[in-house]
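Hi C.,

You asked whether I'd gotten around to modeling the 529-residue construct. I have! Everything is below, sequence then structure, no commentary in between.
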Amino acid sequence: MNGPGIDMGVEDLRSLYSQTFSVNHTYLNEGHGTNCYEVAIYADELLSEWFYMKRQSADLYGFIAATCAEQLNINRLAAEWNILTMTGYGTDQIIRNKAIAPTWITTSPSSRLMYRTLFANIFTRFNWSSIYVVIDTGNYSSYPYYATLFDEQLMGELRNMQLTLRRIDTRRSVDYLGILHEFQKTSRILVFMGQGQFFRKLLLIAESLLMTNGEYVYIGFKMFKFDGFGLMDWRYGDADDGRAREAFRSALLVSVAPSAQVVPERLAATWRERTQRRFNVTVDNANTSVPWPTVTSTYAAFLMFGQVLNETLANDPAFDFQDGARFARLFWNRTFHFPFSEVRLDEKGERIPPMIIEDLDPETGQLQVVLYQDNMLYNLNNVSGAHIDWGGPAGSGNAVPRNEPRCGYQGYRCTVSVSSVLPAVLAVAFTSITFVGVLIYVKRYLYVVLDARWWLLSEQRLQIPVPLQSPPQALSEPDITDSLNAWHWQPHNQVTHEADNSVPVAEQSNSGPPPHPVLSEKIQINITD
């Protein structure tokens, strides 16, 4: 796929600098391996065969290729042989260790350093420290490599960083439901390092679990536009598009800025024609009608090589071009400008592309750039007029999702325990008893002070209970009858109460002695002054 870029690079070197130097180019991989892993297996053999048996005499040697998985093999031998190495795609963190990779330069748009810086900037800006990372180890080999972004160094740079790594293989059945349940118990920020169609599937299941309500964030690792990475979008033209669009409101997509992915039209046209004619690969759909950015970055490596070599020949004719490490240092800390793009290399010879974060515009349904990381100061900047939509229902305030819910990931912090509420209960009980006691005291005090007749019992309080008993025997002695002249006995349900101050007088019977009293359950007594 990168062959046409290499062909055009060699052709342009010969065209631009034919009066200054000549270029001989040899493909080492023709007929050996059809994928990244097979090429890596044969890399040591191919390089050694060329170096010891097929190499022709020259003033300067260099390995320039896109590479895929064989870059470490190339670097190991090239460093030993002190030969310049330039890769258009393949890279590794060891490129920053110049004791191990003294001759290695990369123009790859997928800079591990910039991705790591971008994630660190995101987590710092939004105060996120508990991160759940899902890594697809199956379909595309690059994802496990980029998962090393989340290493001990990053955790050391960010305080209180807690990472949960979950590896999946999308070539087999994936338990997305289990992943989301585990994620819910440990974090609210999920980073998905896998192809677009699987990211969309994860979001659809999250939406069915009500986990796209503005409390969760799903960060998709988009890298750059290439059909091999899958379509990182909600639009698939199926029945789930509506739900996917709503779910994508909770997603952020990180990738290289478009300015680092530009493919010149001349290169694109030549790529389409030569891909089919020379490499027998048919371009038959819109997704592959434009070459992926590594074709451009590999092509740019040839242009950079010619520019530095031409400058050195003009400025330092005595330069020792057999010293590949010294020649490689001439590329460091430079920005190369081309009509289609610019390539900036840092102090280690690694390309530093600008980075972007995209978010779904809920009104238009289009992805828009909301944050931009420059390739000079590595700052994360707001894009004018763009705002992040965090998802969630209308009226939710669009607040940045918290790193951890107030009640904890599983809600245990808000569970009431006996030990936590006992002091409060005792305090309330003591206060209530004290208050009631004060009220009783005040009532009794006011009763005594304001009522001078406090000692006089009311008639209700003089109701004396008397047990039921059989009527007494007839009274025969008149003195007993006389002693009852002051009393009038009546059944309980016939007793009346006098309201005036008259002294009660017993009614006298004209028919003889008073009848025997009929006792009721209670004796009621009216007392007057």
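If it helps when you're writing up: The CA atoms of residues 436 and 442 lie 10 Å apart.

Thanks,
B.
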